[in-house]
Design brief:
- The structure holds two protein chains of two kinds.
- In chain A, the strands form four sheets. In chain A, strands 1, 2, 3, 4, 5, 6, 7 and 8 form an eight-stranded mixed β-sheet that branches. An eight-stranded mixed β-sheet of chain A has the order 17-14-18-13-12-19-11-20, with helices on both faces. In chain A, strands 9-10 form a two-stranded antiparallel ribbon.
- In chain A, helix 2 packs antiparallel against helix 5, helix 11 packs across helix 13 and helix 20 runs antiparallel to helix 21.
- Chain A is built from 22 helices and 20 strands.
- By secondary structure, chain A is of the alpha+beta class.
- The radius of gyration of chain A is 33 Å and the shape is elongated.
- In chain A, strand 3 and strand 4 form a beta hairpin.
- Chain B is α/β, with parallel strands linked by helices.
- In chain B, strands 6-7-8-3-9-10 form a six-stranded mixed β-sheet, sandwiched between helices. In chain B, strands 2-1-4-5 form a four-stranded antiparallel β-sheet, covered by helices on one side.
- Classes of the chains: A alpha+beta, B alpha/beta.
- At the A-B interface, helix 12, helix 19 and helix 22 of A face helix 2, helix 3, strand 6 and helix 4 of B.
Chain lengths: 749, 239
């Protein structure tokens, strides 16, 4: 035991005092480990970040009260300004001591608003007055951090009157606890895969960094062997050396997380989602795991690398031909992953359970790790069959034959990242495709406006006129929405949305369709009165292009639709007005329409049907942006790994390179051999990644119940990015290669 | 006849029958920072002649060899090969010379570890544009001459030091060089293997009329040479 500790300490001392190479290796290991630790600490914070986000959302969720007894009314009137979604909650004090939402010290008076700092900044920016005018309120203060989900949230509490008429709800307090419905299977799958795809390349970087300068380390260990150190002692000294770098990395990672990553988080806004620094707290259990796992991994990688050489008292020799790699377990890894995922196909509900999540995580991890496992075998199989060709090719192929594991591992990270990204892009593409299919051409550009209260007998005509005068509005259809399921609409609107050709001044219709039970002659109850559906009401259907979820209030299957004349005859008046507007894709049309609607009724609801984004779709959009940022970060990490790996290979081979240069080998031949040596595994890796990534994406789409479609453009882009990384790495290592074969280097040999 | 006697017989030495040396180094000066490695060293080598360059460690032996082979450019002085100064030649020209006219043997063989022994020997031929099959055939012949046919398909990590050094000698001679530069060719071998390597090297060199510059500090090895040149403090004696 004492001997073991002494060997470990000796290793650490050698790392610290063993010269430039030792310190460089320790430094690189520290950077790799530090990067991994910081990233893992961040990943360990994600559960708390999600928890804090949900807690903040729930803290401002209203506890409803009957309107008669409420001292506060609330009405949601979200808007959008220059493609920024803004949450707007309109408040109206209705009695003494109203409950205060978190982050507020008072309820804003009518015409005043309290805004989040991010919204205040937006209002101060160019165009901000336009938005303030739209909200009919001036800023009178800001919302405290307690009342916001994140620092970049665009949020406003606007004071107003007359909320009850608009359907404002009575509030008795805030902090309503919602029963969590859990994430959709698709979101769960995406998050799992992104974490795996981001973290595994960091592991590869740690492995590569811990091998840097290993030749010099091995020579030193051989010298210690001569002095009497046995094989296990050698391993302990090497472990001590690796631990020295890893310990530095842990410190670096913790410092990086606390001083850099955590303070950076509040400044990061992905699709409007942001997090306060105080919410970025790693879970204690996961933190301990990360702090232990990464250094242990660094030591394990260093020891694994030593298996390729024999460190004997008289020197270090590379072991002869490496043993052939076994295919069975390498194929079994992705195979088992696909098998696990296959059991989830058609069982989307099971995915939401804890067991399902574990099964999906394991499946995805196994498939992605399968890329790393299969690649060294694939490279080996390829180089064993590749022979002949020019000298540069021969040198590269033979080098890979002797030591394909190193390149295979590093390139495996590219393969893993590309496979993960392709699978994700396939899922995104499928999700987009599904949404696109549900949105026919007839609905593109449609915006629906609801809950407009406009006094006057000719309100409909007035609203229609105002909407049509907005630059960019192509068509508008205004309907009156009565109590319950009664709609008042002009003949032109009825014809447009039902396809009927028969419409007169006194016409009435019942809209049939899924779940429709209304029939002519039936008595329907309205507040304070009853109404008999006219016996002559025609049955009509909404055009199939109009999916029910996108149709303006009350104009849906099961509703009674009356022309204005028929409504007047039956004594029915519209409670509120609604409209469907078709917008041109011209820039700014959406903002102009919202401004116009705000002038008609500031509390009207405007929904962009053509965007057609459900909350789930929005989450996918956020994840897509995270993926792009993540892919860039991963490619940088992998590029750094490749660079370190190639530099290390050049350093290891400096004697051979010098000798080859001595007997007249052209620099271009040596450069080409380095390029082939890097490019061959990358080409194989990308091919494997595309095949497995597309297959994984297809299986995930089946699990999520979405149609399978591939985005080949993204595939080509990612493959191209991988090749670009290799080209950049080769270019960056060329000066080192040229230095190795310069006369000065030859002299040193 | 001893090597020293041979050197004495050669007199000014290193001259071919026509009186023009194959390789001549005149008053070479070479410094590395503040270290003066060569300080007016000279060397002449006749075609087919074997010259041992001797001297203590750090005396400038290897630097003289590197300058003579066109690996290093001297700060002053001139290196003339076959009547042409190579000091002013371009890097490409000097590389071509090393590829086609010179051969090299280093202390540890320095074989390319990922290539088999026969591929290592055929490599200089391949670099000179000889087709793969022909290069392999000629490499096989040289391996046979140096009695290492049995390791032809093995990689350097799988052969002994003596075998590896014989493969290195084959690699140096396979292109039919005019001059072989051997830097401590037996430095890493036991005496028995060292003797065998020197016998094979000198015999093969004589058979192909290749001149040899043999850097060594072992008198036993120097005894294989026609004459000795002593290097001390960057200056030569007996050149």
């Amino acid at each position: 035991m004492r001997r073991g500790v002494s060997d470990l300490l000796l290793g650490a001392r050698l790392a610290a005092t063993g010269g430039t190479d030792s310190r460089l290796r320790a430094g690189l290991t520290a950077i790799g480990v530090g990067f991994g630790v910081a990233l893992l600490l961040f990943a360990a914070s994600v559960p708390n970040m999600i928890g804090a986000h949900e807690a903040r959302s729930q803290a401002r969720m209203p506890k409803l009260a009957s309107a008669a007894h409420a001292s506060l009314y609330e009405y949601q009137a979200d808007t959008s300004f220059r493609a920024n979604d803004i949450t707007v909650l309109v408040l109206q004090q209705a009695g003494p001591d109203p409950p205060l939402p978190p982050g507020l010290s008072r309820i804003p008076a009518p015409g005043q608003m309290l805004v989040s700092p991010a919204l205040e900044h937006l209002l101060q920016a160019s165009g901000g007055t336009e938005l303030a005018r739209r909200l009919h309120a001036r800023v009178s203060g800001t919302i405290g951090e307690r009342g916001l989900n994140g620092p970049a949230e665009l949020f406003a509490y606007v004071g107003a009157a007359g909320l009850r008429r608009h359907g404002g709800v009575g509030v008795r307090g805030f902090g309503h606890q919602l029963v969590q419905s859990g994430h959709s299977p698709l979101i769960t799958l995406l998050v799992i895969m992104m974490v795996v795809a981001l973290l595994l390349p960091v592991g590869v970087f740690v492995a590569t960094a811990s091998r840097f300068g290993s030749e010099q380390r091995n020579s030193r260990l051989a010298a210690l062997r001569l002095l009497g150190l046995d094989r296990s002692g050698t391993a302990r000294v090497a472990s001590g050396e690796a631990l020295f770098g890893a310990a530095g990395g842990v410190a670096l990672g913790v410092i990086g997380f606390v001083l850099i990553l955590r303070p950076l988080v509040p400044h990061t806004d992905i699709a409007g989602v942001s997090v306060f620094a105080q919410d970025v707290n790693p879970s204690p259990g996961l933190t301990v795991l990360a702090l232990l796992l990464v250094p242990v991994a660094a030591v394990a990688f260093a020891l694994l690398a030593m298996r390729q050489v024999a460190i004997e008292p008289l020197g270090v020799s590379r072991r002869g031909r490496p043993p052939r790699r076994r295919l069975v377990w390498r194929l079994a890894t992705p195979g088992l992953g696909f098998l696990l995922l296959a059991t989830l196909v058609g069982a989307g509900g099971r995915l939401a359970s804890a067991g399902g999540e574990i099964e999906a995580s394991a499946g995805i991890v196994l498939v992605l790790v399968g890329v790393c496992a299969l690649l060294p075998w694939l490279v080996e199989a390829a180089v064993l069959r590749a022979d002949g060709g020019p000298v540069a090719w021969l040198l590269a192929v033979r080098r890979l034959r002797l030591d394909h594991g190193t390149s295979g591992r590093v390139v495996g990270a590219i393969g893993l990242a590309v496979a993960g990204a392709i699978a994700l892009q396939t899922v995104f593409s499928g999700a987009d495709h599904a949404r696109y299919v549900s949105l026919p051409a007839s609905q593109r550009g449609l915006v629906q406006i609801g809950n407009m209260i406009v006094p006057g007998a000719d309100a409909e005509r007035l609203v229609a006129g105002r909407l049509r005068s907005v630059h960019g509005v192509l068509d508008s259809y205004v309907i009156g929405t009565g109590r319950q399921s009664v709609t008042v609409a002009s003949c032109s609107t009825i014809v447009e949305f039902t396809g009927t050709s028969a419409c007169g001044p006194q016409s009435s219709y019942v809209v049939s369709g899924f779940g429709s039970s209304l029939r002519p002659g039936q008595l329907i109850r309205l507040p304070g009165r009853s109404l008999r559906v006219p016996a002559g009401a025609r049955r009509v259907s909404l055009l199939p292009a109009l999916a029910p979820e996108f149709v303006v209030q009350n104009f849906y299957a099961g509703s009674l639709v009356l022309t204005p004349g028929a409504a007047a005859r039956l004594g029915v008046s519209a409670h509120t007005l609604a409209a469907i507007v078709r917008l041109s894709p011209a820039a700014g049309a959406d903002d102009r329409l919202r401004d116009a609607v705000a002038r008609i009724d500031p509390l009207a609801e405007v929904t962009d049907v053509s965007a057609g984004m459900s909350p789930r779709d929005l989450t996918i959009a956020k994840l897509r942006r995270i993926l792009t940022a993540g892919a860039v970060a991963v490619l940088l990490v992998i590029g750094a790994s490749l660079l370190v790996s190639v530099i290390e290979q050049l350093r290891e081979r400096r004697r051979v390179l010098a000798v080859m240069s001595a007997f007249g080998t052209r620099a271009s031949t040596l450069a080409a051999s380095v390029l082939w040596q890097t490019a061959l595994p990358v080409l194989l890796g990308l091919t494997l990644a595309i095949v497995l990534g597309a297959a994984l994406g297809a299986v995930l789409m089946e699990i999520a119940g979405l149609p399978v479609s591939f985005d080949w453009g993204s595939v080509a882009l990612l493959a191209g990015a991988g090749v670009a990384v290799v080209a950049a790495v080769t270019g960056l290592t060329l000066p080192i290669l040229l230095r190795q074969i310069s006369p000065e280097a030859l002299r040193a040999e | 006849m001893t090597a020293h006697a041979l050197a004495s017989d050669a007199g000014a030495g290193g001259r071919s029958g026509s009186g023009i040396p194959l390789l001549a180094c005149h008053e070479l000066v070479k410094s590395f920072g503040a270290t003066h490695a060569l300080n007016g060293a000279s060397l002449e080598l006749a075609a087919g002649e074997i010259v041992a360059v001797m001297g203590p460690s750090g005396s400038g032996k290897s630097t003289l060899l590197h300058c003579a082979a066109g690996i290093l450019i001297p700060d002053a002085g001139e290196v003339v090969f076959d009547g042409t100064s190579i000091g002013a030649a371009s890097d490409a020209r000097r590389s071509e010379l090393r590829r086609t006219r010179f051969g090299f043997v280093f202390q540890f063989g320095r074989l390319v570890p990922e290539l088999s022994c026969v591929e290592n020997v055929s490599l200089p031929l391949r670099l000179s544009g000889v087709k793969s099959r022909e290069a392999s055939r000629r490499a096989g012949e040289w391996l046979e001459r140096l009695e290492v046919t049995d390791v032809a398909g093995k990689i350097p990590g799988e052969v002994s030091g003596g075998q590896g050094q014989r493969v290195a000698v084959a690699r140096a001679l396979v292109t039919g060089p005019r001059v072989v530069f051997a830097d401590e060719p037996t430095g890493a071998l036991d005496s028995l293997n060292g003797e065998r390597v020197m016998q094979l090297l000198t015999t093969a060199a004589r058979e192909t009329a290749a001149a040899v510059v043999l850097v060594t500090h072992e008198a036993r090895v120097a005894a294989y040479a026609d004459r000795e040149v002593i290097v001390r403090d960057g200056r030569t004696r007996g050149a």
